[in-house]
Amino acid sequence: ITVAEADDLIDRAARKGVKLVASPGQMLFRHNQRIRELIQEGALGRLAWTAVGAAFGAYHENESVRKGDDPLTNVDPSWYFRKPGGGPLYDMTVYGLHAMTGVLGPAKRVTALSGVGLKEREFRGQMVPCDTDDNTVMLLDFGNTLFGFVYGTFAGSPFAFGAPSYFGTQGAIEGNKMNGQPLEYPGIEVAREKGESALLPHVVGPHQGREEAHVYEDVMQLVDWVREGKPAVPTAEHARHVIDIIESAYRSAETGLAQDLRTTF
Fold first, then answer.
1. What pTM, to 2 d.p., does this model score?
2. Which SS3 state, helix, strand or coil, does residue 112 take?
3. Among residues 181, 165, 178, which one has the least CA distance to residue 48?
4. Is 233 helix (H, G, I), strand (E, B) or coil?
5. Are 34 and 182 in contact (CB under 8 A)?
6. Which residues of the chain have a pLDDT value below 50?
7. Half-sphere exposure at residue 175, Cβ-oriented, CA atoms within 13 angstroms
8. Which of the 8 DSSP states describes residue 203?
9. Model confidence over 126-169: pLDDT tens digits?
10. End-to-end CA distance of the chain
11. How many C-beta atoms surround the C-beta of residue 145 within 10 A?
12. What is the Cα–Cα distance from 204 to 200, expressed in whole angstroms?
C-alpha cells in the first residue's frame, strides 16, 4: 500500500528473476484498449479533463459471502474500514485509476482533500469502528493542462464504477459510449450479453459465469509469463504508479500541499 513496499517487491523480483504481475489488469479489457486508441487517434480532439471514482455505500456489509452462518459465508468485512489497507481508494477507486492511467499514461502531480466520514458501521448486529479515510477527492495533473477528478467516498458515485469519462473539444467518452453511441470493438456483442470480463483471454467456458472473473485472468497472466515467457500486460510498475497517486493524495490532504509523483511506467 506504499511506494516503498512496491519498490521493495519490484527490486526483490528483479534480483531473484521472479515474475511479478499486477491486479487489477484494467488494460486487458478491450473497451479500455479501444478508448486508448480513439484518444491517441484524436477522436475527442483536445482533451480537457477526465473523471472516475467509486463509493463504498453498504456494499461490503451486504456481499453474498457475509450473510451466511458458516466460515465461507460470514466473512468479516471490518478490515475494509480500518487502517492501514482499508478505504475506498485502495479497494475500489484503484480500478478506475488503473484504467485512467492506462489510457492516458502516468500523472505528474496530485492534490487532495480527505478524511473519515463514518466513524463506525454495523455488521451482523455489532458496531465496527472505522478509522481509515473514507471520503477523498483528488485532482490529478497529467501535464499539458489535462486534469483528472478522482474520488473514493462512503456515499454517492456519479460515474460508472471503474470506467473513467474523458472530455475533449470534439466529444466525450463516458463509460462504454462515445458521444452517446456505444463503442464498437471486436466482441462487443459478447460483452453486451455476458459482460466485459467475458472477452478476457482466459475467461472462457465456465469461467465466464464466475464472480469477479477478472481476478482469474490476472492470475493467468502470471501463469502465461512463467510457463510461456509471455510478459503480462498489467505491470508492477503501473501498479506502483497507482499506489503513488493514492499515497500522495493522502499526503496532500495531510499537508495541504500539492504532491509531485515520483513514479512512472
1. 0.95
2. strand
3. 165
4. coil
5. no
6. none
7. 9
8. -
9. 999 999 999 999 999 999 999 999 999 999 999 889 899 999 99
10. 17
11. 10
12. 8
